[in-house]
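Narrative progress, year one. The postdoctoral researcher (J.K.) led the effort to move from monomer predictions toward full complexes, under supervision of the PI. The following entry was the first complex the group processed end to end, covering 607 residues in total.
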Amino acid sequence: MYALIALGYTMVYGIVRLINFAHGDVFMVGAFLAFYSVEKFHLPLPAVFALAAGGAALLAVVIEWVAYRPLRNAPKIAALITAIGVSLFLEYFTALHQVFGPNYYAFPRPFQVVSLEIGGITVTNIQGVILLVTLASLGALQFVVYRTKVGRGMRAVSHDAVTAGLMGVNVNAVISFTFGLGAAFAGIGGVLYGIAYPQINTFMGVMPGLKAFTAAVLGGIGSIPGAVLGALIMGQSETMTTAYLSSTYRDGIAFVLLIAVLLWKPTGILGKARTEKV
Amino acid sequence: MIFLKNIAKAVLPFAALSVLLQFLSARGILNPYWVQIFQLACIVAISALGLNLIYGFTGLFSLGHAAFYGVGAYTAALLTKLYVGAYGDEAVIAVGAVFLGSLLAGGFAAAFLAFLVGLPTLRLTSDYLGIATLGFGVIMKVLFDNADSLVPQLGGARGMTGIARMTGIPWAVAALVAAILVIRNLVHSTYGRALIAIREDEVAAAAMGIDTFRFKLIGFTAGCAFAGVAGGLYAHLYTFLHPSSFDFMKSFDVLMIVVLGGLGNITGTLVASFAWIFLLEGMRVALPPEYIEFRWVLIPLLLIVTMLVRPRGLFGVREFPFLRSKVYR
């Protein structure tokens, strides 16, 4: 699940070099969309995923258009601060009583939980669904990035936006598409989160967002396999800490790991070193 | 003599302001709540000046400022608490000196920690440094949460209580003036010019013979010392510390202040700190109670609009006259 959120971060950063702090909140909106579609409209599960992904993508494209595009040529920090602003806005706006409300909501289980025991390891069908959806999303992403025209555009813009523009790539459209695609994965991640930990509120995006970003950096930001690898390491280390140390140290361990890796490889495990040119 | 005259010229208006405010609040003309907010604004301004030195002048992207603020707060609070605990009521006699000492100790603790953290992490560049310091901030928050298992007085996740109330208007204003003077003189010294050179172009600065790593470490350590002192003042203003006051969102608050005011701009940082705090609290009063939660909806909107209209901060590179360098500009 971290992997799905981390993908959005890494794609956006790879293309516009912006830490999109609002990404965790897009994830939250995805979870809430799923919540309403299950609770109020009793939609089937595939429709829930489609709705959450679509809604999150739409939101991200709007955010990009309103808040980030005017700052494309401004100092990088201005866009970063705007991203923090957008993040705070989404959190507190959706916490208003008129929108989603500040309470915790119980996410309804869309299907019965079944546990299977395979060779001493207990696997629930929830974990199975999460694994399947994540793998399917990764496959889809791999296809989009390496097999389609817009994917070629994304790779070109990430390499050199100005030259890509000269070569006839519609840079703005590609960036919008990237934001939308990343957000769609966050939306799917939101649904999975709701299924796995059946309690959601409007601030739920903060910590997963931060950790997913850390996972992306850990694996080497801008690299898609890196984001997945980072997310796997992150998830494992957190589970291990909870199991063997104490859950109070859980939030810290991920960052200890991050700093250790950054000191060893300053651009992440699968990141490419960029030499500073004068 | 000229030196003393300059100091006096800079300090006197602030001293007069401090006396006036103290007088008004003693007479009950000023609401104690607003007096407290004013002191908080001074404290935030000190911390923000520190971050401005780190990010605005030296160009080191730090997202862990609140952690150093917290270290200063806990250190200073623990020292005064131990002192008061040891001497009880007789403690009153030397308490001012002890308070000053513990503030400085808080600043020193933050600076020492910054030195230790900076040694490995300052070799990282731009965003990676930001993430590493952000991570450090989260780690420190976890440590604050679990601090009571090591030192029971620190309170851990339940919060630290029973800190003597020491910070008053004179302390807050004096500390702020001292911070402004130190940072102004530092920025316009050879050290400051080296820091700015690193911000502008690290490779070129190194080619001009600046030991960039050493100066980055100096800038980072000094900036964090400001945060430590500010944290000590904060602890003795509210007499209660909780780890959630030092989480990474607080680092973002300070960062927003510095960027809003304009990077590398002392005037901007000062104005933005006061505007930020008074805006937050003013809206608490101005908005009708049923709309109080709109506060945090309006503030980010205001932030986004400000950034879209003035991407280089409110003040850009313009400074108040007394903060300008006499040599150039």
